[in-house]
C-alpha cells in the first residue's frame, strides 16, 4: 500500500522559512518523479514543484521559483521542500504526490497524495 506522510508545516511570519518532508513507503520511491502541490483555503489544488526520479531535474511554478527548493533522498525514501521568503499567499495545505507512471514527469495534481501539512504565513 502506497503511503505518503507529510510533516514540517506550521505558522510562520512573512519572510520566514520552513522545511517540509514527505516520508514514502509501499512503492519503489527511486523509480518515481515526485511533486508538491498545495491548496489555499477555498481554492483548488495548485502544482508547486516536481523533481525527477533521480533528483537531477527540478521544476517550479512561477509563483515559487527562486524561493522554494525541492529535493529528495532516495536512500531515505523522503521528499523535501525548502520554503524561504514566505508570503501570505503561500498559506495552504501542502501535499506530496506520486504519479501513476514510473519515471514520468507530471506538472499537475494527478496521483496519490498524502494527508498534507498545513503552512500558515501570517504576522
In percent, how helical is the residue content? under 10%
Main sheet makeup: 7 strands, mixed
Low-confidence stretches: none
Dominant shape: globular
Determine the N-to-C terminus distance.
Answer: 40 Å
Mean pLDDT: 96
Beta-strand residue percentage: over 45%
Structure in words:
There is one protein chain. By secondary structure, the chain is an all-beta fold. It has strands at 3-7, 10-12, 18-25, 34-39, 45-51, 58-60, 68-73, 78-83, 92-98, 112-113, 117-121.
Entry keywords:
47% strand; mainly beta; 4-stranded antiparallel beta sheet; 123 residues
Quick structural summary:
The protein is an all-beta fold and 123 residues long. The protein is built from no helices and eleven strands.
List the helices and strands and how they pair.
Blueprint: E1 3-7, E2 10-12, E3 18-25, E4 34-39, E5 45-51, E6 58-60, E7 68-73, E8 78-83, E9 92-98, E10 112-113, E11 117-121
Parallel strand pairs: 2-11
Antiparallel strand pairs: 1-3, 3-8, 4-5, 4-9, 5-6, 7-8, 9-10, 9-11
Amino acid at each position: 500500500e502506497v503511503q505518503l506522510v507529510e510533516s514540517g508545516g506550521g505558522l510562520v511570519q512573512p519572510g520566514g522559512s520552513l522545511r517540509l518532508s514527505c516520508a514514502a513507503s509501499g512503492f519503489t520511491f527511486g523509480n518515481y518523479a515526485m511533486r508538491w502541490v498545495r491548496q489555499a483555503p477555498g481554492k483548488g489544488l495548485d502544482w508547486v514543484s516536481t523533481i525527477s526520479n533521480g533528483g537531477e531535474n527540478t521544476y517550479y511554478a512561477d509563483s515559487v521559483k527562486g524561493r522554494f527548493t525541492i529535493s529528495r533522498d532516495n536512500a531515505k525514501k523522503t521528499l523535501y521542500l525548502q520554503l524561504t521568503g514566505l508570503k501570505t499567499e503561500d498559506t495552504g495545505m501542502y501535499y506530496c504526490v506520486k504519479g501513476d507512471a514510473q519515471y514520468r514527469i507530471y506538472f499537475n495534481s494527478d496521483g496519490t497524495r498524502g494527508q498534507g501539512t498545513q503552512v500558515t504565513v501570517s504576522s
